[in-house]
Amino acid sequence: MSLSARMVVVLTVVGLISGTFLALVGTMTEDRIEMNRQSEIQKAIIELIPETESSRKIYEEKSLTVYESLDENENTVGFAVYASGTGFQDVITLMYGIDPSISKMRDLLILDQKETPGLGAKIADEESFLRFWENRNCENPLALRKPAVDSPEKLAPSEVNAITGATISSEKVLGIVNSSLARLREIKEEGKLSSEGGNVN
Amino acid sequence: MSTKKSLSEEYLKGLWSENPIFKQLLGMCATLAVTNAVINGIAMGLATSFVLIFSSVVISSIKKLIPNQVRIAAYIVVIASFVTVADRFLAAFFPPISKALGPYVPLIVVNCIILGRQEAFSSRNSVGRSFIDALGMSSGFILALLILSSIREVLGSGTFLGHQVMGSWFKPWIVMILPAGAFITLGVLLAIFMLIETKTRKRSA
Predict the structure, then answer these.
(1) How confident is the model at residue B3 (pLDDT cuts 50, 70, 90)?
(2) B95–A26 CB contact, under 8 Å
(3) Between vectors from CA B83 to CA B146 and to CA B189, what angle results, nearest 5°?
(4) Is residue A147 part of a domain?
């Protein structure tokens, strides 16, 4: 066999074997990876809206997914919103719980972020950031409190705390929340939140 | 190779005299980026070892079939396959670690330690020797990541493997878990290794 033919044959064979091998590994791990993602979301929904008995996905679009959370009588107790957007360094993925009328923020969770360790990464920290998001009034867009205060009682009902030294990361989170809230209202007005159908409670 | 080393020497050279991090200064990207916590360092070390050992065995066993002109392309395909396996495995069974390592697992493909060992060793030695060599290099790599990440986690977060080891008086040096801390720690460690090396060489001379 000539050299060039051998080169083509060897590379093709190596590629084919690797490809088959990877396809096998891919199918073997696929379900588990999807399962991990789902269970992470389920866990987050219950953490955000503790009275959730069951939940279902009711709306999905790019960088926004809405889950409806139901209690044991199948009444809507709130929505869990899964949203993502650009942070200071990379995409921030977060989830928050909100009451059915979209006026009160229940709680916020950061699922994925790659902000500066020790500074922006504090957005995932309960003590310095997340606890200031509980029970916020979000009929109007939320605002950032600067300079930061040390306890949630010192904030106005529609304010959230900034992180000292990481204002940009705090602003990015706020931006993702505010824009997804606005979008959520639009979707609701369009009647696409399917809960609007049967049970309005 | 003019003089054949014994198998134990083949293994031990990866730990000390040819340590991939402290002596060859290879694979710096992964080394500097993921050593901000011990668990990440260990996971990266194990993932890289898996790729290195399997690639070395596969490549040393097919080395005679691969024409010289396309060897790098063939090596990279083999290496990339094992990296993808490692990546999927971590995502399926250890999601938190997979998240923490982020893009650095796929980047093992371009880790110079792996391609370097294939070029310098596996393509010229038997399967057995290549396996031992890969094992030694992996151990050296894990050892180096372990030292680096222990120093950085203890000083940067006050914890070791997530357990608090420093008292409440200790204020974490944030710089240690930032990129600058990686360079500072590595620099100091390299200086120490060079010092030990020069001392021992003087003594044996």
Answers:
(1) low
(2) no
(3) 25
(4) yes
Domain assignment present for A31: no
Residue A38 is classified by DSSP as: H
Does residue B5 sit within a domain? no
pLDDT digits (tens, 9 = 90+) for A119-157: 888 898 888 889 999 888 988 889 988 888 888 888 888
Residue of B65, B81, B92 with shortest CB distance to A21: B81
Best of A16, A25, A90 to mutate (most B CBs within 10 Å, chain B): A25
Total number of domains in chain A? 1
Closest Cα in chain A, distance from residue B144 (Å): 22
* CB-based contact, A29 to chain B, within 8 Å: yes
With CA atoms as reference, the chain A residue closest to B181 would be A117
CA B52-B53-B59 angle, to 5 degrees, is 85
**Which of A75, A90, A80, A64 shows the shortest CA–CA distance to A176?**
A64
Tell me whether residue B133 is in a domain. Answer: yes
**Considering its fold, how many domains does chain B have in total?**
1
Q: Is residue B196 part of a domain?
A: no
Residue A167 lies in a domain: yes
| Cα-based angle A110, A113, A116 (whole degrees, multiple of 5) | 120
pLDDT of residue A199: 41
What does the pLDDT look like over B51-67, one tens digit per residue? 999 999 999 999 999 99
B181 falls within a domain: no
The overall average pLDDT reported for chain A is 87
- The residue range of the domain holding B107 is 10-149
| Domain range for A54 | 46-189
- The confidence band for A194, taking pLDDT boundaries of 50, 70 and 90, is low
Is A190 within 8 Å of chain B by CB? no
Q: Which of A3, A7, A117 comes nearest B177 by C-beta?
A: A117
Q: What is the number of alpha carbons within 13 Å of residue B161 lying toward its C-beta? A: 4
Residue of B nearest to A6 (CA): B67
Inspect the interface and report whether the beta carbons of B178 and A117 lie closer than 8 Å: yes
B59-98 tens-digit pLDDT: 999 999 999 999 999 999 999 999 999 999 999 999 888 8
Per residue in B158-178, pLDDT tens? 889 888 888 888 888 888 888
| Nearest alpha-carbon partner for B133 in B30, B33, B14, B37 | B14
Cβ density class A81-104: b for 16+ within 10 Å, e for less:
bbbbbebbeeebbbbbbbbbebeb
